Amino acid sequence: MLYRVGRKVLSRNPHLMVGVFGGVAKLVPQGIRYGREFRKTRRFLQKSQWWTAEQHAAYQLAKLKETIEYAYYNIPFYRESFDAHGVSPDDLKELEDIRRFPTMDKETLLENYDRIHALEGDNLMEFCTGGTTGSGVWLNFEESFRQREQAFIWHNWNRVGYKHGMLAAILQHRECPPDINDGIWYMDRVSNAMILSAQRLTHESVEQYLKVVESNGPKVLIAYPSLAHLFATYAKEIGWKKKVFDLVLCGSETLYDFQRRHLEEVFQAPVRIHYGHIESCALFGYCKESNIYHVQTEYGFAEVLRENGVPAEPGESGQIFGTSFDNRSVPLIRFGTRDVAKVGHGTCVCGRNYPLIEKIEGREGDFIQTRSGKVHSPIVIEFLIDGRVGFSDLQIVQNDLDEVVVRVVRAANFTQEELDLFCNGLAERLEHELVVSTEFVDEIPRTSRQKKSLVLSNLSR
Ligand SMILES: [Zn+2]
């Protein structure tokens, strides 16, 4: 009974189990969260992380073949699409052959979802892809696939130093009951985590947050980069000097270098992140030794493609496309994420032989567009922000092709001169194609899930 209730609650409230720490975690039996598939995948990853490059490639080819064959013989959408492109599973003999198969964008997934998802039944869990543009779609996953997903996430977290049993502080989207601890935090014993309220985090309340964190002693802060950065900014503004975390773990948004440096300075702890989506076709994560993304080759097949469809070379940037492995319910093949990554060089010093991604330059909806057709990633802004102290928070909003608005939350030592410098620098980086105007606000609005992009584009691409 409990199992059924847990599954039903999660099915209707999918956001609750996007992370390991679901809001209704106590209703969910361990069998769902850490069942057989979870344990099996964890054991597998313990070994596969030390594979040679050849072993990774052989595994990827075998899994790609399995995915392509499954899709072709079980899902009419793929059969029609492959036939129209004149390709069949037999054409996949080497990894490079995947380029003969068609790519798929989000619109195609939305329009054809009924013909793409392959399974029906009770053992499916529904998750919404969300996204900043409101173009979310509900996807059905098998429970075993979600367990596998959790195993990959925990493997990534373990790799950067966060182990089961360590007390964590979580600053994400979960609301805190207003009648407990002034609505600032509560202890989730099932998840072994202090849940911090994003809604009540302000310059005035931050000292209370820091003191409660100091007295409870969580080892790790798990947060969206923008929220972690806001937390650190307020902490710095009140002159907080003590070290309260051993590790800061980020996810779900782009982590910019200026944010990472600021977090490392204020919290005096390493900052690590992983990159992934609900669509579950690509996963990249840092290791303990470096600030660089390792492409998780056992998870899916990731490609970084330039606009002409040619793979980006090391040092070049392109859109991330992913092909899912082991997803029998919604297999995605060469799915365009609209996220942009820069390909890394060589292999990591940690000794693992995963391909590397140097940085994620922007995620969907993070880009500034101009009338001449240029697209600027938020990287153009991060150089301008670095080191500035007069802004508690900031966001660039684009509503049309002629103007961007800089929303600013002023810090105590704000000066108009610093803001003018920032705006002039931005106009220059955008090659004066857009007017840069400003707007003072008390706080930057967040999405219902408490996310915030450095650049918020309300234009469609
Ligand atoms: Zn490494």
Quickly list its features.
Rossmann fold; 12-stranded mixed sheet; 12 helices; GMP Synthetase, Chain A, domain 3; binds zinc ion; alpha/beta; single chain; 3 domains; 461 residues; 4-stranded mixed sheet
Structural class given helices, strands, pairing?
alpha/beta
Sheet with most strands: strand arrangement = 4-5-3-6-7-8-9-10-14-13-12-11
Mean residue pLDDT: 88
Percentage beta strand: 15-25%
Helix content: 25-40%
**CATH top level class name of the largest domain:** Alpha Beta
Number of domains: 3
> What is the CA–CA distance across the termini?
46 Å
The Rg value, from CA coordinates, equals 22 Å
Query: How many H/I helical runs?
Result: 12
Q: How would you describe this structure to a colleague?
A:
This protein has 461 residues and is an alpha/beta fold. The chain folds into three domains: 214 residues, 3-Layer(aba) Sandwich (Rossmann fold), CATH 3.40.50.12780; 102 residues, Rossmann fold, CATH 3.40.50; 90 residues, ANL, C-terminal domain (GMP Synthetase, Chain A, domain 3, 2-Layer Sandwich), CATH 3.30.300. Helices cover 31% and strands 22% of the residues. The strands form four sheets. It has a twelve-stranded mixed sheet with strand order 4-5-3-6-7-8-9-10-14-13-12-11. A four-stranded mixed sheet has the order 19-18-17-20. The chain has a two-stranded antiparallel sheet with strand order 1-2. α10 links the parallel β7 and β8. The chain is globular. The structure holds zinc ion. Zinc ion binds next to loops.
